[in-house]
């Protein structure tokens, strides 16, 4: 984990509080996690921050790592639709502190699709956070919404943060518990 010098100014989100902060060109950061197109970096005074995929170039990185689904800028409204595509896309949304995606962490409580009159799909997602008051909730909610919106056939996406039932480690997939050494 070598320090990286930012090639341009970029806005980051402080972890875990969710506050926005602008880092300047030339500031040095250390990338601690690069998953799903976003980056967790250590900034001054040991604080952690998240750099969105749209700002990957400030780190000299590609926003779409090989093997990851790429999100287009505009919503896709035509094509065959399968709810599994939604779950696969949600697997590219990662907790910025834990190197596990929101599906395997058990943060996705409900994921349903409803056919709209225009033939498109409305996807409704209920998700939680690992802790109440997590400042990253809005960031992860927006990332989930914007990624799912790019799936062909999806014309509307609603993501709601819920707290009931409270999240606990029993909601994690076996693979996530194994990855984190929780057996």
From TrEMBL:
The transmembrane segments are none
Boundaries of every MIP18 family-like domain copy = 84-159
Q: Which Pfam families match?
A: FeS_assembly_P
Q: What is this protein called?
A: Putative Fe-S cluster assembly protein SufT
Q: Whose protein is this, by species?
A: Pseudomonas brassicacearum
């Amino acid at each position: 984990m070598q320090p990286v010098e930012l090639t341009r100014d970029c806005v980051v989100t402080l972890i875990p509080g969710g506050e926005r902060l602008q880092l300047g060109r030339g500031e040095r950061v250390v990338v601690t996690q690069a998953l799903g197109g976003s980056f967790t970096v250590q900034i001054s005074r040991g604080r952690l921050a998240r750099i969105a995929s749209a700002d990957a170039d400030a780190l000299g990185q590609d926003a779409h790592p090989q093997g990851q689904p790429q999100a287009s800028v505009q919503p896709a409204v035509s094509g065959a639709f399968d709810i599994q595509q939604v779950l696969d896309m949600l697997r590219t949304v990662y907790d910025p502190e834990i190197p596990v995606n929101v599906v395997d962490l058990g943060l996705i409580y409900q994921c349903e699709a409803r056919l709209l009159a225009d033939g498109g799909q409305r996807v409704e997602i209920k998700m939680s956070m690992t802790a109440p008051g997590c400042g990253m909730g809005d960031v992860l909610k927006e990332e989930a919404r914007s990624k799912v919106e790019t799936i062909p056939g999806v014309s509307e996406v609603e993501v709601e943060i819920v707290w009931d039932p409270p999240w606990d480690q029993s909601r994690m997939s076996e693979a996530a518990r194994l990855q984190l050494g929780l057996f």
